[in-house]
Predict the structure.
Amino acid sequence: MISAALFFILLTLAVYHSYAKLQQKLQKAWLNPMLLSILTLIPFLLLFNIPFEQYYQATTSLNKLLEPAVVALGFPLYQHLQTIKKQWRHIMVLLLVGVFIAISISFIITLLTINQYDIAVSLSLKSVTTPIGIALTEQLNGSNSITAFAIILAGLFGALLGPPWLSLIKVTSPKAQGLAIGAASHALGTATISKVSYEHAAYSSLALIISAVISAIFSPMIINTLAHFLQ
């Protein structure tokens, strides 16, 4: 069991590190190490008929490292704390509106398109960090698996396409880019844009945290209200 766990951990680290070095060398945003690692490891598990539960249990120690990694995102936030204090009212209003729009549009479009309440709930929570998204999904009778998948996709698409898209539409402010990516693509998007600058990291981390809190407080009210009028 120990040797199997060590093998899966080393395999995961080797695959991710290889793709990270490749992206660093070629400087291509679409060569996202997380995405490519997933696209490599899933076929590997299927090819050798390895249950996901076995792989997940073997790599639990890697998952636990996410906690201090997320805490580390607070350092650039602390560095820009004085500037953020001067803008906190505007930031709160922007993130509140952003969360409301993101949840409402996803829920309305999904419900009107396929008329499946549980899927609509799950997709509407795609921009919330995973622990809160799963908890809200259970509370609102959604599908945990769909929510988890949607959160991964939101993070990956935000990490891959978010910065180029923002630059294309002339959103060049590090503050605006950080807030947008953090609110829409949570931890994965934040980790990606943090490589650009500490200012990007600070505002993206801030958006990730505040958006999660706002979603936890208001998403049940938003979803229940919309469901009442649409069903």
Summary: The chain has a mean pLDDT of 87. The chain has two domains: 1-64, 69-230.
